[in-house]
Description:
Blueprint: E1 4-5, E2 9-11, E3 17-21, E4 27-32, E5 35-40, E6 45-46, E7 54-57, E8 64-72, E9 75-83, E10 96-103, H1 111-125, E11 132-138, E12 142-144, E13 150-151, H2 154-165, H3 176-185, E14 198-205, H4 212-222, E15 227-233, H5 239-248, E16 253-256, H6 262-273, E17 276-286, E18 290-293, E19 300-301, E20 306-312, E21 318-325, E22 328-334, H7 345-363, H8 371-380, H9 434-465
Parallel strand pairs: 10-11, 10-14, 14-15, 15-16
Antiparallel strand pairs: 1-6, 2-5, 3-7, 4-5, 8-9, 9-20, 11-12, 11-13, 17-19, 17-21, 18-20, 21-22
Amino acid sequence: DQLVARLDIKINAGFEVENFAAPYHNIRVTRLSNDYLIRPEQDQVPMDRDFVLRWKPVAQQAPVAAYFAEQISGHDHGLIMVMPPAASPSLQIGPRELIMIIDSSGSMSGQSMVQAKQAVQMALARLRPQDRFNIIDFDSGFRTLFPTSTSASEGAIRRARFFVDGLTADGGTEMYAPLQAALTQSASGESGKSEDSLTQIVFITDGSVGNESALFELIHEEIADKRLYTVGIGSAPNAYFMRKAAEFGRGTYTYIGSTDEVQTRMGDLFGKIEKPTLTQIAIKINGSEAELYPQPVPDLFVGEPLLIKARFDQPPENVVIEGRFQGQPWRRELKLQSGEQAEGIATLWARAKVANLMDEGVRQGNASLHKEDIIKLGIVHRLVTQYTSFVAVDKTPVRPQDAPLKQNQIANRMPAGSNQLAPTVGYPRTALGLHWHMLIGLGLFSLALLLWQRNEFGGAQDADLA
């Protein structure tokens, strides 16, 4: 049987693994020093379904970090991976400042406005007494609920709910001023914030703008230690602007397409940003100059690892990660495994570098600003970019023209669990076949002919009677 596969998977996770699971196959796991070798229990497995492998790290009470390296083109490259601690009720999350910007312009009328209101009301319900918050509403102009962020008291939240219920969608879309107000207002209220308080801005809009470059530049200049999370509302939001704005703001982009998704999608977003386990992260490289991405380094959240790609001018002596965990300074020094090469690390760095160059060009209003640098990276690291692609060259031996053509049917497996015959697989079963189309067409033609005869000859008989 040629339609079988042999699988040997070698994994160096960089941390202790609690368990491996393959939901569709039985597997054997062998520990080899720092590596894990995973094989199916059968030497050969049928090629009739995907092989899915999942692994879970051993739960830790504090963040853990790992380091992988690869040398290509005379440069050392590294991947720094930080894993969050296990979620537990004892995990202390510091106070935060939440500023919500809601778009009430005319483009948000209808279901988009309903979804935006639901999202804000849900955020208000999740605030804690130690949190601070504010709401900014904008269309052609903007207005703030409070002059600066205020404590999430019952009275303040009640006033906020009344404010949100009264919003109506009309007017133009002027995003610059309200976004600037959100990015700068927290600076005026620093006296009410603790060292571990985190300012999070949630921007809810359909992204209907024409000055994207100016907005990107504003976020880049004013974001400082704040975080920007964008929420796209409606059936056709400006996903490019929303995604890039979140990247410049060290946040994430969430899309909500219908009112049925508000609870789930916003619940996932707030559940994530409410639990930043490691903040104010800084990477220190000793003994080498480094180029790191992403910059600045985002926060570490429960259930989501942080990956930092780096390139060094020479092998570093060590890598130190610093941050704040549960209100206390946190520090880890990574052991660098000399001589061991992790294939693919340089490619990850190059992709991050290309994305950074593209973002800088967009921010400055010239998308091709770093075209030559991107082409060079694409060629050296064999990447598909906006300016480079792969060219396939077929080197298969060609049949001589005088030789007869040989045909051979290639067997294929049915998907696991399927009872269909092979020729019918992949064809839709929802449309009528050719014969039914012909019968329906013939019936409609006959009906049209009868109607024509009735109008033609019936009208003449009526005229004769008159």
